[in-house]
Design brief:
5-stranded mixed β-sheet, 53% strand
Length: 522
C-alpha cells in the first residue's frame, strides 16, 4: 500500500486479483489497474506522477500513470528474477528479487538513460544472507541510502537487516544485523524521514526496536501491547505500529488488532485505534498494512479476516491528535444555608492526566427564581485543578450549582453539580371546619386562609372521602383577605387538605380539616 498525496489516492496491490486498486482518502474505490499478475511491492516517483509496481511472476516492474491509471511501461528485470519490492534511492529504482536457485538479492533499474538498464547482484557483500527477496526502504532526505530487510522469523531462518550506500549508483554495504540482534524476528520496518534511523517491528516481544542507520546500533524503541506486523513513519516523524492483541491468558487472540501512534522519540502512544471483531469488519491488521498520508492528516490501515478473501481499507483521521483523558468534577456546598447570606462553593476538576495549562470552569445556578438557570460566569482553576467561589442566593429552597469544564487539547469536558437547601420564610395557612359534624348530603363550605407571602398567592384544596381517592377540589388565588373558599357535598367522613406550594422566599405550608358526616337516612 502506498499513498499519493498529490492526487489524494491510496494504491493497494492485490496479487491474487492481478490488479492494483485505487481508493480516495475516504476509502472509496475510484479505479483499478488490471492485468498485473502477482502485483506486489510498490513505490511512487518523487512527483507522484508514476507508480512503480513489482511483478514477480512476470520478472518485471510496471510503470503506471497515477492520473489515468494506465500502465505506461513494463521493465524486464532479467530472466529468472522475481522482483517483489521496490524503492527509489540514488537516482535509481532498486528492487529486491528472488533467485531461481533460491535466496534473494538486490537489483537496480536505471531509468535516466535513453535505454533503461538493469544491474543485478547488488547485495554481493551480503550474498548468502538473503534467504528471500529483501524488502527495501529509503528516505527522501537521504537519497543515497537504501535499507534492506529479510522478513523471516528467527524460528525459520535468521532475519537480516542491512544498510547500503547507493549514492554512487552501486550498492556499497555499510552495516548489517542478523538474528541475535533482531531478537525474535522482523515483520516490517520503516526509515525515519531524516534517514537517520530505522524502526523494526518485533512480532513476539511487543517492543519495536530503533537502530541508527550509520552502524545499526540500538537506539531505543516503541513499546506496544501488540505482536507487531506493520509499521509506517509519517513525513513529520510520527510512528504508527500495529498488530494483534495479546489475550489475557498470554496467548494470541486473533479477534482483535490495535494500531498505536507515537510522536517522534517518545515511548508512550498518543493515540490508539482498536479493530475488534464486533465492529463487523475484517479485524486482523495485514502485514505491511499501514501507510500515512504525506500531510500526516490520515493513517490508512488494511485489515483482513482469516476466513474471508477480501481486505478492508480503514481511514484513521487525525491520528496524531491524542486521545483525550476523561475528567470528573467534584462540587461541594453546605448542607443548608440562610437565604441572602454568602455561601462558599468549592471543588476540583479531576483527571488521571495532569493539567499542563491553567483553565476555567463555567458556573450556573438553578433555583426557584431562575428555574432555567442563571450564569454566574467563569472561575479560574488552580494549578491543581481546584476552584473556589462565593455566592449569595436570593431564592430559597433547593439551589443547585452546576460546574462545567469545557476541556482542552488533552482532556474531555465534564460537568458536576451539588445542591444546597436555602431557608425560606415560614408561611401560615389555616383551613376551617376541623372536627365539625354534618348531615348526609350537606353542601358545606370550607375556607382556607393564607398569611403573608413573597409572591405566590395560590392555594389548592384536596378532599379524600373515607375509603375513597384523594382528589383536587379547587386551585386558585386567594382574595385580598387571603381567603379561598370551596363548596363540597358530603356523603362520607372526609379529610380536607389546603396546601401552599411556596415560592422563592416563602416556605410551603399546609393544613388539614377532618369532618364527620352522619349516616344516610333510611
Amino acid at each position: 500500500m502506498v499513498v499519493d498525496g498529490v492526487h489524494r489516492r491510496v494504491f493497494v496491490s492485490s496479487p491474487s486479483g492481478a490488479k492494483i486498486i485505487a481508493a480516495d482518502y475516504n476509502g472509496k474505490v475510484v479505479g483499478e489497474i488490471t492485468g498485473l499478475p502477482d502485483a506486489s511491492g510498490m513505490t511512487l516517483s518523487a512527483d507522484s506522477a508514476t507508480l512503480y509496481a513489482a511483478q514477480p511472476a512476470a520478472a518485471a516492474i510496471a510503470a503506471i500513470d497515477t492520473v489515468t491509471l494506465k500502465v505506461t511501461a513494463r521493465y524486464k528485470t532479467g530472466a529468472g528474477t522475481a522482483p517483489e519490492n521496490v524503492a527509489l534511492a540514488g537516482g535509481k529504482l532498486w528492487f529486491g528479487y528472488g533467485k531461481p536457485e533460491g535466496g534473494g538479492d538486490i537489483g537496480a533499474l536505471d531509468l535516466a538513460g535513453a535505454v533503461p538498464s538493469v544491474v543485478l547482484n547488488q547485495a554481493a557483500e551480503a550474498t548468502g544472507r538473503w534467504k528471500t527477496a529483501p524488502e527495501l526502504a529509503s528516505a527522501p532526505a537521504a537519497p543515497g541510502l537504501l535499507v534492506a530487510g529479510a522478513k523471516v522469523s528467527v524460528f525459520a531462518q535468521p532475519p537480516v537487516l542491512a544498510v547500503y550506500d547507493v549514492a554512487s549508483g552501486t550498492a556499497r554495504h555499510k552495516a548489517q544485523l542478523s538474528d541475535m540482534h533482531l531478537q525474535t524476528g522482523l515483520e516490517d520496518f520503516a526509515v525515519t524521514p531524516d534517514g537517520q534511523k530505522v524502526v523494526v517491528t518485533d512480532p513476539l516481544r511487543g517492543y519495536n526496536r530503533t537502530f541508527s542507520i550509520s552502524d545499526l546500533s540500538f537506539n531505543g524503541g516503541y513499546p506496544t501491547s501488540t505482536d507487531s506486523n506493520a509499521i509506517d513513519i509519517a513525513p513529520d516523524g510520527s510512528v504508527a505500529v500495529g498488530g494483534e492483541f495479546d489475550s489475557p491468558s498470554g496467548g494470541l487472540d486473533p479477534r482483535n488488532s490495535r494500531v498505536d501512534v507515537f510522536r517522534p522519540g517518545t515511548d508512550k502512544a498518543v493515540r490508539s485505534f482498536d479493530f475488534p471483531e464486533g465492529d463487523r469488519q475484517p479485524y486482523q491488521l495485514s502485514t505491511d498494512g499501514l501507510a500515512w498520508a504525506p500531510d500526516s492528516s490520515r493513517l490508512f490501515a488494511l485489515t483482513s479476516h482469516y476466513l474471508r478473501d477480501y481486505l478492508t481499507l480503514r481511514v484513521l483521521n487525525n491520528p496524531t491528535l491524542p486521545t483525550k483523558a476523561t475528567t470528573r468534577i467534584d462540587v461541594s456546598v453546605p448542607w443548608d444555608a440562610p437565604r441572602g447570606k454568602e455561601l462558599a462553593v468549592t471543588g476540583a476538576v479531576l483527571s488521571a492526566r495532569p493539567f499542563t495549562e491553567p483553565g476555567t470552569v463555567e458556573v450556573t445556578r438553578t433555583d426557584l427564581g431562575a428555574p432555567q438557570g442563571m450564569s454566574l460566569g467563569s472561575h479560574p482553576l488552580s494549578d491543581r485543578g481546584t476552584f473556589y467561589f462565593t455566592d449569595i442566593p436570593s431564592a430559597g429552597g433547593k439551589v443547585t450549582y452546576t460546574v462545567r469544564y469545557k476541556g482542552d487539547a488533552e482532556h474531555v469536558w465534564s460537568t458536576g453539580s451539588a445542591s444546597v437547601e436555602v431557608s425560606r420564610t415560614k408561611s401560615s395557612l389555616a383551613l376551617n371546619g376541623d372536627g365539625k359534624i354534618y348531615a348526609y348530603g350537606t353542601k358545606a363550605t370550607f375556607t382556607s386562609h393564607l398569611g403573608k407571602t413573597w409572591k405566590s398567592r395560590t392555594v389548592s384544596v384536596h378532599a379524600q372521602p373515607a375509603g375513597g381517592v384523594r382528589k383536587l377540589v379547587k386551585t386558585g388565588t386567594v382574595n385580598a383577605r387571603g381567603d379561598l373558599s370551596v363548596t363540597y357535598q358530603l356523603t362520607k367522613n372526609t379529610t380536607f387538605t389546603a396546601s401552599f406550594a411556596g415560592d422563592a422566599r416563602s416556605a410551603p405550608a399546609n393544613d388539614t380539616s377532618k369532618v364527620t358526616t352522619r349516616a344516610r337516612p333510611r
